[in-house]
Amino acid sequence: MKPIIYDYNLDQLQDWMKENGEPAFRGGQLFDWLYVKRVKSFEDMSNLPKPLREKLEESFQFVTLSEITRFESKDGTVKFLFGLHDNHAIETVIMRHDYGNSICVTTQVGCRIGCTFCASTLGGLKRNLTAGEIVAQVVTAQQMLDATGERVSSIVIMGSGEPFENYDATMTFLRIMIHEKGLNIGQRHITVSTSGIVPSMYKFTEENTQINLAISIHAPNDKLRSKLMPVNRRFPFEDVMAACRNHIAKTGRRITFEYALIGGVNDQAEHAQELADVLQGMLCHVNLIPVNHVPERNYVRTPRNDIFEFQRILEKNKINCTIRREQGHDIAAACGQLRAKHMESTTR
């Protein structure tokens, strides 16, 4: 299979040009066609010599995603199911907010983390995505938004998979996204979410970026977190929290803790108080997520009043906290749901 053109950052494109007898500035022109003009073929790159366009066509694969289906919610959320070259499928979501358009990208086909409330883990991990396959999700979404004069203003790496188990591809993707000669997404408008892969958390801290870090925590202690998130047996709760404190100390940046509320499991007043005690004094924000119902799981949603009580207890303890606004509820927008349905139908 030919390499994916989106796998290459600007420096690598310039190096490729020099290796192929072209001046380095041609790499900059190519980068501009990919991310500023966002053309869909090498033939459209009119300021590149025709022999070079033909060489690029011979050397690289351009289109990496095929749209299997698209659902549009009443609230403006758009969810794509994209097919890959090897017949796997991934999901990408565009969310419309008052402050702009956010895109949620996927970093793996499936997931091996095994969170018991998440549809992404159904069927396990198939493979990592390349950096270019992650990039292509944003470019494809931006091409759709171009038709109405809109743009992707923020990115959340919160789709299927664990980005810190595909660390190098994730970081290449991020560097391409923030490049000032490309899509130029502001670093503070990007959030990468991890289930707590501790070695990669320390590595990410040393990258010294302004990109936001979010941790899927979902419990206030080791025992309950191990029940909900098997990854906690590899990277215990206290080790995750130590990595969080290190990140805050070294970067001065606030961490977001994502906490999925599951009816009768982790949503009681004592859980809220225990979480407040653990987070006391940390520069952090808690994002409470009323769990989406996944037919393959037995969990139920936390009653509305209990959600507000959980929030009240955290705020009483001076913990900054919000409740995530639901989007795309009518189009199975929870991570992995659309892919799970597709897998089931193709298996039948």
From TrEMBL:
Reactions mediated catalytically: adenosine(37) in tRNA + 2 reduced [2Fe-2S]-[ferredoxin] + 2 S-adenosyl-L-methionine = 2-methyladenosine(37) in tRNA + 5'-deoxyadenosine + L-methionine + 2 oxidized [2Fe-2S]-[ferredoxin] + S-adenosyl-L-homocysteine; adenosine(2503) in 23S rRNA + 2 reduced [2Fe-2S]-[ferredoxin] + 2 S-adenosyl-L-methionine = 2-methyladenosine(2503) in 23S rRNA + 5'-deoxyadenosine + L-methionine + 2 oxidized [2Fe-2S]-[ferredoxin] + S-adenosyl-L-homocysteine
Assigned EC number: 2.1.1.192
Localization per Swiss-Prot or TrEMBL: Cytoplasm
Record-annotated active site: E91, C335
One term of GO molecular function: methyltransferase activity
Predominant subcellular localization, coarse grouping: cytoplasm
Enzyme class: transferase
Coiled-coil residues: none
A GO BP entry: methylation
Note: Reaction proceeds by a ping-pong mechanism involving intermediate methylation of a conserved cysteine residue.
The family this protein is said to belong to: Belongs to the radical SAM superfamily. RlmN family.
NCBIfam families (alphabetical): rRNA_mod_RlmN (TIGR00048)
Protein name per the record: Probable dual-specificity RNA methyltransferase RlmN
Native organism: Paenibacillus glycanilyticus
Gene giving rise to this polypeptide: rlmN_1
